[in-house]
Amino acid sequence: MSASVHIVGPQFSTFVRSVQLCCEEKGVPYTLGMEANGQPVAMHSPEHLALHPYGKVPILLHGERRLAETPSICRYLDAAFDGAALQPDDPWERARVDQWAGLLAGYVDQALVRRYLLEFVFPKGEGGAVREEAVAAARPGVARALEVLEAPLAEGDYLVGGLFSVADAIAAPMLDYLAGLDDAEALLAASPRVQAYLERLKARPAAANVLVAPDLSVLSR
What we know:
It is an enzyme of class 2 (transferase). Residues 3-85 form the GST N-terminal domain. Pfam families: GST_C, GST_N_3. Its EC number is 2.5.1.18. The chain is of the alpha+beta class. It folds into 2 domains: 5-85, Glutaredoxin (3-Layer(aba) Sandwich); 91-208, Glutathione S-transferase Yfyf (Class Pi), Chain A, domain 2 (Up-down Bundle). The protein is built from 8 helices and 6 strands, in the order E-H-E-E-E-H-E-E-H-H-H-H-H-H. The chain has helices spanning 14-26, 46-51, 70-80, 91-121, 132-150, 166-179, 185-189, 192-203, and strands spanning 5-8, 30-33, 35-36, 39-40, 59-62, 65-68. The strands form 2 sheets. The chain has a 4-stranded mixed sheet with strand order 2-1-5-6, with helices on one face. The protein has a two-stranded antiparallel ribbon with strand order 3-4. A hairpin with a 2-residue loop joins strand 3 and strand 4. Helix 3 packs across helix 6. It is globular, with a radius of gyration of 17 Å. The chain starts with a strand and ends in an 18-residue tail after the last helix.
């Protein structure tokens, strides 16, 4: 089996960045981009749907293996490669990491990314304007998600105690993008533990190549 992997997806995607973070944390060599086996993969094309039945990213290519869905990919990377453990050995603690990975990839992603952040990145108002009513409607969900994340951070530096885990790799890109929005400043100010948590995540060496300014020019190619 190959010692390296390829991540299908654009680097600006929060979920692609989560997989990238896991590779960086474990020292797994990787490439990434919208291609597979040297051939371009257009979003929702037949080639894309052959890799993911619902046309989502990321998709992990490891030799002849194909794997979709971020929590599953991150767990696989942790189990299949040497390097720092991204999941606890204890069954209960591991289940808690799985719980947070599911909550983040589902509910928190919907609140922070799909309903809020994307309105600023890809505004759908008239003339390409941000829809202020959509932003206002999304803010309570963002506040609730941050409140949910505050609670476990009272017990340790990361979402499950003192170990950086798969769950933290999923949380980091979402929170990093959120902190880059002026509109979110007041929301984050009400969640001081989340703010401190994000600074810890960004200070990790693995974040240097991942939590970077997004290149959205790929969308016009």
